[in-house]
Amino acid sequence: MIGRLSARWARVELTVAALLALSITALILLNVITRSIGSALFWVDELAIYAMAWMTFLGASAALHFGHTVAITILTDSLPPLLRRITAKLVDVVVLIFALFMIWFCWRWYSPLELARQGFDTQAFQGATFNFIYAEPTSTLGIRKFWVWMVMWAFAIGATLHSVANLLDQGTKDETASS
Q1: Domain around 52
Q2: pLDDT of 44 strictly over 50
Q3: CA proximity to 20, closest of 46, 54, 70
Q4: How many domains does the chain have?
Q5: Bigger pLDDT: 124 or 176?
Q6: What pLDDT is stored for residue 174 in this prediction?
Q7: Does the pLDDT of residue 175 top 60, yes or no?
């Protein structure tokens, strides 16, 4: 069940990442056109950067599911199959630990319980915690940056899901991931 959920979530991540890649191309093209006619839209640069960041994090999370992450296999390629599978599972454990730390860091960064304790009043939240995550606006778009940074939550949750699914997998991806 977790494997199927991981596969569905990876497909969603890749679909959104592909749409973001398309939007980056369109934004850059729009930027070229508007600059060439002397009427630059400065928010386009910022939006393209944020779209690229989202695309990268979503693609990285999906890569964990599909086993398409960057790996140096000079050592593991020389191991016998059993040790290779054990090493792959240890890597999955390290990725899971990293993903769980990411969730914990996001939790501490966003402090949702403290925000709720302050009645979702961002001014009171800032005064109580000296955390200004909900106040900082983007440079040209004018939206709050915490919306942009939500990709960290998506990455952390996706990476956790994919690493758990990989740990529970019986090893069919382990041999194919290194080839």
Answers
A1: 2-177
A2: yes
A3: 54
A4: 1
A5: 124
A6: 42
A7: no
